[in-house]
């Protein structure tokens, strides 16, 4: 998967960047239930940094990780232009603790988990659990399950609940697909919100 994303960024074939901006606009509504002040947030699969930068603007201390160096370079440039401080790191979602440490109050995943293999999903869940604080929130955007050619295979509610056994799934809502191309609308995009037990 890493090579495919590296090539896609190199040749500027990155439709998820545009889609992520549209879906990212929904993050504000999804964060409304938070009554705690901002803390540490980890943006997994941060790409070119749009969500990480927005979270930093809101007062969060943000670490963004990705496996594509070109995307991280663009993210750092965007953050400088935006005048925000974000720590962008080359790291893998299945090996987090050594790269990013612990203490995260919010984990943000806009389209990483739903493209992982079953083995990597288990490692991801274990790593997210290790690096997050008690009662942390995981806010995850994912497509519903299905075979869609080059699009990620997606994930079901039961898959999420089974893999994240140390977390409680508190909401599973349809993502707003206004303005999205047909293939993305048909992919049953969802927002999962989980709270660490």
UniProtKB/TrEMBL annotation:
UniProt xrefs under CDD domains: AdoMet_MTases
Gene Ontology MF term list: methyltransferase activity
Short name of one Pfam family: Methyltransf_25
A Gene Ontology biological process term: methylation
Enzyme Commission designation: 2.1.-.-
Keyword terms, alphabetized: Methyltransferase, S-adenosyl-L-methionine, Transferase
Name recorded for this polypeptide: Class I SAM-dependent methyltransferase
Organism in which the protein naturally occurs: Rhodococcus jostii
């Amino acid at each position: 998967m890493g090579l495919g994303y590296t090539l896609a960024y190199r040749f500027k074939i990155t439709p998820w960047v545009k889609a992520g901006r549209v879906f990212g606009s929904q993050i504000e509504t999804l964060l409304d239930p938070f009554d705690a002040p901002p803390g540490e947030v980890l943006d997994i699969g941060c790409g070119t940094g749009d969500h990480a930068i927005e979270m930093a603007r809101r007062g969060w201390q943000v670490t963004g990780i990705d496996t594509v160096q070109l995307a991280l370079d663009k993210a750092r440039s965007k953050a400088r232009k935006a005048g925000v401080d974000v720590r962008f790191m080359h790291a893998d979602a299945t090996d987090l603790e050594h790269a990013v440490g612990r203490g995260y109050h919010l984990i943000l995943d806009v389209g990483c988990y739903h493209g992982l293999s079953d083995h990597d999903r288990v490692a991801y869940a274990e790593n997210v659990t290790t690096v997050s604080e008690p009662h942390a929130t995981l806010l995850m955007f994912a497509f519903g399950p299905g075979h869609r050619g080059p699009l990620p295979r997606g994930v079901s509610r039961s898959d999420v609940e089974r893999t994240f056994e140390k977390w409680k799934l508190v909401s599973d809502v349809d993502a707003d697909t206004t303005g999205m191309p047909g293939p993305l609308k048909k992919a049953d995009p969802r927002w999962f919100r989980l709270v660490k037990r």
